[in-house]
Amino acid sequence: MPDESDLDLLRPGVSCAAVLEQFAGWKLDKRESTRRALKYRRGRGEIIIVNHDGHGWWDPTSDAKGDVFDLVRHLEAGLTFGQACGVLQRFVGVVPTYPATLRERRSRARCSPAERWDRRAAIRPGCPAWRYLAEQRAIPDAILASAARHDAIRCGSHGSAWFAHRAARALTHVEVRSATYKGSLVGGRKTLFRFGGTATSLRRVAVLEAPIDALSLAALEQAVDEVLYVATGGGMGPGTLVAIDELVTRVREARGILVSAADANEPGDRFALRHAELAAEAGVKFERLRPPEGLDWNDVLVGRSRSAS
Fold first, then answer.
1. Where are the domains of the chain?
2. DSSP per position, the chain
3. What are the two backbone dihedrals, phi and then psi, of residue 193, each rounded to the nearest 5 degrees?
4. pLDDT tens profile 244-259
């Protein structure tokens, strides 16, 4: 068993980020990381966020979290505490690479996402972004027109569609989608894409993974005024969780329901479980609205459109 002096050396001397960078497969997600919240990914659906200046971490897909000792035992299941200390000793003083990476990213981000958003036009019938969403994604014109009126989507470069994430009405992040590209603008902070929910009382909130899925479910349900459709942009970062917590509070006050409409796959089911936990913690009614196996709501909408044509 390590003595107290060893623990005093390991706790402040080892960064969770440095540990992750040395374990096989874990890579920093440069686009979705900030100094306060470093997002690391491995494989499909595995995410760990490092916080507290490298001294803490948490897994947004589960309840796992803790300090650097917990991290090593999370990465290598079965290690005793003493064995974890042995592993950590080789990381004392190791400096993670993320400071240089984030400095490089900031130097490339000459304008903020909000500034770049302001330079783009709203989508309109006939523009490349409108055609992509209407023709390839089967989003009805009425839904696109409503999104344009509420400034949820703008025309991006190379025919792409830009989707706004907002918190307290301020634009925080922009997702980018086209037939050939999936990404986001550099320098943003993910919160939530929002569409619908124009009624005074927020009785129903549907949480999805992608903005296109949120628009698709809105088209399928035809209840834009009564339902607020939000999209997390995939995994839920710190800003996303704060935004969802605020919505859950509003739903509770309205005695409404939180609906998880995440994809019908393993990551989607994990997201839905987390949504259910957030609802339970707040005492809010919850529903899992799952598309057919292996599909998302845009797949459903596209399939229905093809069947009707």
1. 4-108, 113-308
2. ---HHHHHHHHHH--HHHHHHHSTT-EE-STT--SS-EEEEETTTEEEEEEGGGTEEE-TTSS-EESHHHHHHHHSTT--HHHHHHHHGGGTTPPPSHHHHHHHHHHH--S-HHHHHHTSPBP-TTSHHHHIIIIIS---HHHHHHHHHTT-EEE-GGG-EEEEEEETTEEEEEEEE-SS-EEE-TT-----EEEE--SSS--EEEEESSHHHHHHHHHHHT-TTTEEEEE--SS--HHHHHHHHHHHHHHHHTT-EEEE---SSHHHHHHHHHHHHHHHHHT-EEEE--PSTT--HHHHHHHHHHHH-
3. -80, 135
4. 999 999 999 999 999 9
Cβ pair 212, 139 in contact under 8 A: yes
235: pLDDT strictly greater than 90: no
* Per-residue pLDDT tens over the stretch 116-164: 999 999 999 999 999 999 999 999 999 999 999 999 999 998 899 999 9
Distance CA 130, CA 215 (A): 13
Cross-strand pairs, 39? 49
Q: What is the DSSP track for 236-282?
A: --HHHHHHHHHHHHHHHHTT-EEEE---SSHHHHHHHHHHHHHHHHH
At the topology level, CATH places domain 4-108 in DNA Primase; Chain A (3.90.580)
What's the CA gap between 17 and 30, in Å, rounded? Answer: 13
Q: How far apart are CA 29 and CA 40, in angstroms?
A: 6
Show the CA angle centred on residue 58, arms to residues 239 and 33, nearest 5°.
Answer: 50
CATH number of 113-308: 3.40.1360.10
